[in-house]
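User: I'll paste a sequence; please echo it back and then give the predicted structure.

Assistant: Echoing your sequence first, then the prediction.
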Amino acid sequence: MRRLIILASMTLMASAVQAAEAGKVIFVAGAAQVVDRKAAEGDAVQEGELLQTGADGFIYVKTSDNGLFILRPNTKARIVAYHIDRANPENTRVKLELISGVARSKSGDEVKRARQN
């Protein structure tokens, strides 16, 4: 039983480490979802989560460093990585993946400091 509890605790800690919060939804219009749930203002967006809009949908995500990631109608996209290292900007890693459709982005404060990446 003790091993089972330890294994379960380690699994929960590993999943928490893998997916960091990339930002928050600040605007939603029309059909829009984050993973398999309806998108709503204030929702956290974790690294790796699929964002999707329908024919009339828009999602605006404010990133953790005040950037923007905007999805227009009929779009699928993912914030694959959004790791900000304020102490060492050279370690900052950001990867946005556009699967289909149209998206816009504005670099956040810390991403601008790490332009070489």
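DSSP finds two helices and ten strands in the chain. Confidence is low (pLDDT under 50) at residues 13-17.
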